[in-house]
Amino acid sequence: MMETVKSKNSRTNSLTILLRLILGSLFLVAGLQKIGEPAAFARSIANYRLISGELVTWSAVLVPWLEILIGSSLLLGWLTRISAMTATALSLGFALFTGSALVRGLNVDCGCFTGASEVSVAHWLVNVLMIAAGTWLGLKGAPRLSVDSYLNNPDRLSLKSRLTLVALLLMVVGGGLLVNRPLHQPQGEAKIVFEQELIELTSVPQERETRINVRYKNLGSHTANISKVESTCGCTRAELSKKIVLPGESGEVTVSYKPGENTGQFEQKVRLVVEGQSNLPVLSLRGEIDPMTRAVPGVFQIAAGDSVIAKIESRREGFTPVVTGSSSPLRGVGMEQIAPASDGSPRVKLTLRAPLPRPTGHVNAWPVRIELAGAPACSIYFQTK
Which of 35, 129, 233, 268 is spaced 20 to 30 Å from 137 by Cα? Predict the structure, then answer.
């Protein structure tokens, strides 16, 4: 019976040692890799979109040092219980971040190690296993092959040990701030610029969404954090490939423009709001909207009492627009549908019953809007005869 108990204890001790060495190695390697690239780690943290600003900076500075301290303590078997429970708490935080990214469908690097892969269920499961291992070690301690067993004091901390632990924590904070001072106190500012500030689009289909990709680059000496993207109107959307851009790195913005009811020439602007950058980058889009439907002819010279006939044409093959009504800022404009043209296109007869207003310096034509079913409206313009 005694031999069975001893055998069981031996297996338990062996498992504890194995878990301690594996968990300690993981934390030590992760911390050593991150500590040399704090800005890259800050970008990984920010991409999760759970914390921002100073909290990202402090996390990027302190977490790698804490990982090194936890990993070293576990490998040595010194202050094992405290180190293991700290590792458990940190792993719980990692699991919350990766799990949140999976639930929200974010395609981000996990930030676990240098050159780590995109967040996946496997990363989340590894964090869960680390939580389990840390909890086991927090309960079992380090009974063999450890500094704790050598000191024969695994369950309580002496005053000397407590003071040593406080000193180590102060070293972590102080050393992290000293080594990573360029991250926390940047010398200079971020400077995001577009490779092209003006995009000329010759013709944009009215009924479809037009997309373009434009690259931007950080020419500054400080990591850029793009906090917001602003556009001229709701018809223009912009999506960024990355919001945290290191000095010298580039990203790409995808701009989508859908004219809707708009016609004629257009100019849309997209502005990136970059924290700490005084002159914000602006991208301009210019072009002409190619209408899906148009009235032929589009301009009439007309006087009171005159009637004109216009044909409604469509670029979409097999589609025949249906006229549903008309509207105009002019008074006394009548409209009636007449027999379609030989090609089947609808025709309308417009009658002006009152004189046109006198032309001004900026206005010499007045619109009559033709409402259509299943297609954007088109316009006819009246000029004084």
Answer: 35
